[in-house]
Amino acid sequence: PSDKQISSCDPALRPIIRRRARSLPTSPERKRAAVRCQVPGCLSRMNRVRFADALGLELTEVKVFQSGEDPSIPLHVLSRLSINSDLWYSSLDLEFTMQCLVPDFQQPADCMDFSSRLQTQQVCLERVTSSDLGLSGTIHVRNIAFEKRVSVRYTFNQWKSLHELSAQWHSSIPEKNGQDQVDVFTFFLPVPPFLLQVCSVVQFAARYQVNGREYWDNNRGKNYSLTCRTHPLKMPRECEESWIHFI
Q1: N or C: which terminus of the chain carries fewer CB neighbours within 10 A?
Q2: Is 137 exposed, middle or buried (0-12, 13-18, 19+ CB in 10 A)?
Q3: Using H for helix, E for strand and C for coil, what is the string for the chain?
Q4: What domains are there in the chain, each with its CATH number?
Q5: 42 — phi, psi (to 5°)?
Q6: 166-176, pLDDT tens digit by residue?
Q7: Backbone φ, ψ for residue 196 (5° rounding)
């Protein structure tokens, strides 16, 4: 029959086309992030994971766990957890040591005669602490006059050569008698790392200049000395897991 004889009520026939699923379009930033591997000879691209439900597709399988039912863990995952556990326990037995300067004297502020020494000498070291960068300390001086200078004279080689640095005013406090005032000065003495060798010694004394006179606190003629010693270190609990990853 001719085309004119075909009824206009018949539906138009269309070819069946199977469309392949396509990934969602990516933004320019994601396109730039999908760079090629930089290893020579490697032409692969970075892998990106897309889930079927995010694309509007059906999931291959849905697993429903009943109450009290434990999921099945692959053997290779269990073995890896066991290895990490062994490394964790072995890391607890590791010992570390470091060199630091240790005072060879009792901190003056902890001595019973600290106030009397200050009254006699006009100047007295209060306390000194050490770190990996150097020595920090505080010095007390009697407020004889407003204009004053406090410094620390020190040596690394048994006074074959010496250095001196100025201390900085920190605060003023009343003396125990409540009538006079004491000025507190602070200082920082840098110690080069190459000098931190076992048994090396740093010595120093405090110098106070006021009203054209000077006063010293040299630990009753013995000077204040600190000796470099080796100390064991314990690994902090928060660092143990990161140490496993380092291994």
Answers
A1: N
A2: buried
A3: CCHHHCCCCCCCCCCCCCCCCCCCCCCHHHHHHCCECCCCCCCCECCCCCCHHHHCCCCCCCCCCCCCCCCCCCHHHHHHHHHHHHHHHHHCCCCEEEEEEEECCCCHHHCCCHHHHHHHHCEEEEEEEECCCEEEEEEEEECCCCCEEEEEEEECCCCCCCEEEECEEEEEEECCCCCCEEEEEEEEEECCHHHCCCCCEEEEEEEEEECCEEEEECCCCCCEEEEEEEEEECCCHHHHHHHHHHC
A4: 99-233 (2.60.40.2440)
A5: -105, 120
A6: 999 999 998 77
A7: -80, 75
Query: Which of the four pLDDT bands, split at 50, 70 and 90, describes residue 201?
Result: very high
The model carries a pTM of: 0.57
Q: Which two tokens stand for residue 179?
A: 């009538």
